[in-house]
Amino acid sequence: EKADRDQPVHLEADRATVQDANKLATFTGNVVLTQGTLIIRADKMTVKEDTNGFQHATAFGNLASFRQKRDGKDEYVEGWSERMEYDSKADKVELFKKAKLRRGQDEVYGDYISYDAINEFFQVIGGNNQTAPQARSEGRVRAVIQPKKKEQNPNAESR
Amino acid sequence: CGFQLRGQATLPFETLFISAPAGHPIGTDLKRLVKAGTKTRIVGEAKTAQATLEIISVTNDKEIMSVSGGGRVREFELRYRVSFRLINAKGVELIPTNEIALRRIIPFTDAQVVAKEGEEAMLVREMQGDSAAQIVRRMEAVKTASAQ
Amino acid sequence: ETPSTESKNKQERVARPAQKETNGNKPVLIDTEPIRGRHEYETEAKGDADLRSSSVISAEERPDNLPESIRPKPQQNYTSPAVKNAPAKNEPTVGVSAVDAEHKENQPVTAGVESVAEHALHEGEPALRTTTKRPSGIAATPPQEGSRLAMPGPEMGKNRFARTETDQIRGHFEQESDFKLRLGGQVEPDTGTRVGVAGAPVESAKNKPIFVAADRLQGHPGRDIEAIGKAELTNGDQFISADRMKYYETTEDAEAEGAVRVEQRGDILEGSRLKFNLASKTGELSQPSYQLKDASSRGSADLLRFEGENKYRLQHATYTTCPAGDESWFIQVTNIVLDNSTKTGTARGVKLTFKDVPLFYTPWMSFSYGKERKSGLLAPTYGTNVKTGLELTLPFYWNIAPNYDATISARMMSKRGVALNNEFRYLTKYSSGTALLDVLPYDLDTKHNRWRTSFWHDQNLTNGWWSRLDYNRVSDDNYFRDLGNNLNLTSRTNLLQQGVVGYNRNLGEEGTLSLTAMAQQFQTIQDPLATIVAPYKRLPQATLIINKPNVFGADFNFLGSGTNFSHPTLVSGQRLVLFPSVSYPMQSAFGYITPKIGIHHTRYYLDALGTSPESNPTRTLPLFSVDTGVMLDRNIALRGEQFTQTLEPRLFYVYVPFRDQSSLPNFDSAKTDFSFAQMLTENRFSGSDRINDANQVTFALTSRLIEPGSGKERLRLAVGQQVSFTDRRISLDAPNTISRRPDFIAAVSGFITPTISTDSSMQFDQRMFRTEVVRSGLSYRPEPGKVINVGYRFTRDVLHQVDASSQWRWAEKWQTVARINYSLQDHRILEGLAGLEYNSCCWSLRFVVQHLTTATQRTTTAAFLQLELNGLMQIGSNPLQVLQRSIPGYTQIGSQGSSPVEGPQSGEHRLSQ
Q1: Which chains touch A (3+ CB pairs under 8 A)?
Q2: Distance from C784 to chain A by nearest Cα, in Å?
Q3: Which of C109, C209, C213 is the closest to A146 by Cβ?
Q4: Is the pLDDT of residue C907 over 50?
Q5: DSSP three-state, residue B37
């Protein structure tokens, strides 16, 4: 949700090391970062705080995952990847390598996925595309769109 | 010169059912030949028979063989074709579907069109007897009833 | 249809005119048409009896159910989500939906991730379901079904010549209707009218997941997704690829640009821009070029409009069935609708171009590319003929119902005007028939109306009763000679007009009883230069034949017939014939002796004729015969091959006392040909009016070479000698019968070498010491499609001819057919025929030249050309078809995908139950 940007960021982990000099904290072991409805889970995460307090987190995991509620909809967007960059100021998540984004039952795969929560815009880029930094898988991105039930209200969660 | 009397033919099955098109005389010819020439018994239906001889179809047709100088027919060719197959109780084909085709020539003049009916019927019946004999001889050539 | 071998119960004989056992004037109708005592039966509903069609009449190929055939793409490795058979409410069973994950809050995160990973594995790998039933290649055109009256229709016979009087002239050539009528028990749904696709209930494409792949994806979740760079979208059996593609989830619209390629069910459509709605399967593809699998056709257009699952509509399109790169023919249309459910195409504003030459234009045209019989135009035939001038025949096939059809052709003749030939066929559970009417309203030459009609009906009246009607009539004597185009028509002299009702049943285990009542007469069309005496009319004739074998070891046989013969000029009257006989067959494995004795009683009630008063002559005479034979065999080796050779000597003695028959009329007796069949019977005259006096013995010796493995007869030699102890005093003074009688006969038939076979016989008169009859034929058949036959036929004072015919397939595409029948006696060609057929992969061209003797000093020369475009103009029957059959050993090599050897006639349509 948009409101997540102004929420405080909580972090839990088995271990944490902090280097105050360059405001860099590294958490390892079952790391969980929550900010409002956003939850990021990873095996290892480094968090950097910029001058005016916005965090920039880089998560690593054997598929680190993130989950965030969509704005005004009772629906969640989830993502998985080996490396995840989160910029709390822009409320934008970038997933690298074996990236997968899912909304309801629709899913998108690729080497690099960026999801801008504010205007709910995602971008998926394959490996051989120069914009994706160092991804090098066979370069194709894929999406699966599940058929919608026509009579069901599109935004109601179909449970 | 090596010729001996033909021995009792042994068909590789004791009971045989002949399924011929209903009412067709080739069925009676075959029954008579099997009874006379072999030790095999003819039975009433396929269930109890060790083998079934299926006469799939019998057709005869007539084609112009030669015409006179004035374009009138002088000879017809009568063709008689029987297609048959032999299957054992389990439905395995001992003789796969195949066909015996015979032909006879009958001279013809238009004035005797009515009379030629009798001659044509005689020729057809002779071909029928001939093909029945050939079918029985083919059955005699089948080695074992329970072909794998 | 697997042959159902359930045996009909003994009593209820299926109504087929059983071939009567005894001789005498059996009401088996022969005359110029096939033996009406047709024995075409089948134990199952299969109608056409020859071997070939039994393999052909496979169940009508079920229209495929909608195969989910996604063209396998190498780099796509989708596995279908486990949701393949999505539960009703479309909830994907696989995914751990977001809400679930929340409940498992207290579970360690890794579990969540793991299940998610496993989920991803599932999700990311949609399996490619390729269930294409048919090779998706374009090549396989659906094989054409054979065309015969399937059940229980008359035997169309391999050769239309054999067809009954009801041979019809459809178009110039006698075109056998080649369409298959089907009579379902419950009338089989005519696939033509059934909309939608049969087969397994098909998941509508709507609730199928959509897979998108590209170099780059972007969009708004739940609203739209844009794929850039080699974009591909797969939905159910549809696959779309393009440079860029956008998909709107809410409206399920897809738009694609740049090298758009759509593949569905084997059809490949390419174009520049596509707008397509995945739900309603409608949309447009601009500048399309297309390849359709079912129609095996291709072409390009300005616009292709998808109209539902199975329908394409193309604007300003070209259409051809020739493979890519082969521009032999194509049609340009303003618009064409291709409906895959009924496999039919309807085009408007059609311009046909063949080898860059525009052939014809038609505002409207409909054709069928499937096997289903489809009303529509058949391949036209162009030609010239001495009698009828330039000709064009346009047959139109009307598929009324699975078991009714009609073929109407307009035959335009420059010298005669326009004739309309109609043939209507029908098939019901118990009857089948053909009605034919050819009308030439105004013959430009003879200035009046000429017509020809023939009606044939076969009825099974159940429990043993059957009936058959066979009526043929023409408007004038020269009808066939002027308008007929093949020997089988032009040689007609007596047109049969007959109705028969019969009853057959069994008598105990093997006995048979058959009763037939018949009315028969002929329309005799005279050749003015060679008039003949019209045959007697039999109005009516009743015949009873009883055959009861092994009653205390003896076989009883009875023939009784009462006939009313009438004739305009000759003596008319009634005749009663009673001919009981008994024989006592003593048979064993190696031989038999069969004495037989019969009493032949005939009584006439003759009307007065001219000077001779009424009279009731009678004749009663006994017949006695003994038939004995022995069978010997031995094994021999010939040229390295093992054979069983049989030797079958046979002796046949006949004694019939002389009875003066000069005062008896001759209604239906004639001299029979001295053949192996005839010389072993009691009477050398057919019919019942003349019983020969005989005290003769006939000796016959037959030797066969039998292949031990299969029991097949490879070669047969036979000689026969008849010795008469008294000189025969009964003769038949009918016109042009020869009094002399051959008494020695020799015959050989079978394979001399694996490819050369012969069938020759010779009759010799020892008293006059000269040959009476020679009939010899040699045929060389190295492989199917290649046969050469040569024949020499001589009958003293009757005919002296040589005959050569050949079908030769020069190359994959070229085939020639030729026949020449030269009369040495008349020093001219009686029948000459030459045909050329070129079968390219998507079209065939046939050319026939023919020369016929139609009457004394009257001949017809005709030439014909037929162009058949596969899959567009379904072929009615090709001009060669009728002639090809006159080549013994001819193999049908259809152009429309029929198998080389035993394939069905191309384009045939079958009446089947």
Answers
A1: C
A2: 55
A3: C209
A4: no
A5: helix
Q: How many residue pairs from chains B and C have C-beta atoms closer than 8 A? A: 330
682-711 in chain C: CB under 8 A from chain B: 686-687, 706-711
Asked if B78 contacts B45 with a C-beta cutoff of 8 angstroms, the reply is: no
Q: Cα-flanking dihedrals φ and ψ of residue C40, to 5°? A: -80, 100
Nearest to C123 among A107, A121, A129 (CB): A107
Give C75→chain A minimum CA distance, Å: 9
Cβ proximity of C543 and C515 under 8 Å: yes
Per-residue pLDDT tens over the stretch C352-362: 898 888 888 88
pLDDT band at A95 (very low <50, low <70, confident <90, very high): confident
* Beta carbons of B18 and B46 less than 8 angstroms apart: no
Q: Is B47 on the interface with C (CB under 8 A)?
A: no
**Contact status, residue C265 vs residue C256, Cβ threshold 8 Å:** no
The alpha-carbon radius of gyration of chain A (Å, integer) is 16
In a 10 Å sphere around its CB, with 0-12 CB exposed, 13-18 middle and 19+ buried, how is residue C20 labelled? buried
Which amino acid, residue C709?
G
Prediction ipTM score: 0.64
Strands C632-638 and B4-5: antiparallel
- Rounded Cα distance between C744 and C200, Å, is 70
User: What is the least distance, in Å, from the CA of C493 to any CA of chain B?
Assistant: 7
Environment class of residue B126 by beta-carbon count within 10 Å: exposed (0-12), middle (13-18) or buried (19+)? Answer: buried
The DSSP letter of residue C558 is: E
Q: Which pLDDT tens digit goes with each residue over A53-91?
A: 777 888 888 888 888 887 777 888 888 888 888 887 777
Mean pLDDT computed over C582-599: 91
**Cβ contacts (< 8 Å) between A78 and chain C: which residues?**
98, 101, 116
Asked whether the predicted pLDDT for residue C44 surpasses 50, the reply is no
B116 and C31 in contact by Cβ < 8 A? Answer: yes
CA gap B114, B118 in Å, rounded: 8
Query: Which are the contacts of C610, defined by CB distance < 8 A and separation ≥ 6?
Result: none
Answer whether C248 touches A (CB < 8 Å). Answer: no
Closest-CA residue of chain A to C83: A146
Q: pLDDT band at residue C256, thresholds of 50, 70 and 90?
A: very high
Please name which of C203, C222, C218, C209 lies closest in space to residue C126, comparing C-alpha atoms.
Answer: C209
Residue located via tokens 């017949």? C623
Please say whether the beta carbons of C635 and C643 come within 8 A.
yes
Whose structure tokens read 């259809």? C894
Cα–Cα dist A132/A123, whole Å: 11
CA distances from C510 to B36, C23, C464, C506 (A): 14, 19, 16, 7
Going from the C-alpha of B124 to that of each of A144, C401, C442, C626, C671, the distances in angstroms are 73, 37, 44, 22, 17
Query: Alpha carbon of C196 to those of C61, C64, C200: distances in Å?
Result: 16, 11, 12
Q: What's the Rg (C-alpha) of chain B?
A: 19
Mean residue pLDDT of chain C comes to: 74
- Tell me what the mean pLDDT of segment C380-404 comes to: 84
- Quickly list DSSP for B72-131: -EEEEEEEEEEEEEEEETT--EEEEEEEEEEEEEEE--GGGHHHHHHHHHHHHHHHHHHH
CA distance C250 to C884: 63
* Chain A neighbors of C82, CB-CB under 8 A: none
Q: Do A32 and C109 touch (CB under 8 A)?
A: yes
Contact status, residue C630 vs residue C649, Cβ threshold 8 Å: yes
Note the pLDDT tens digit of each residue in C293-312: 877 888 999 999 998 888 89
- CA distance to partner chain C, nearest, from residue A52 (Å): 30
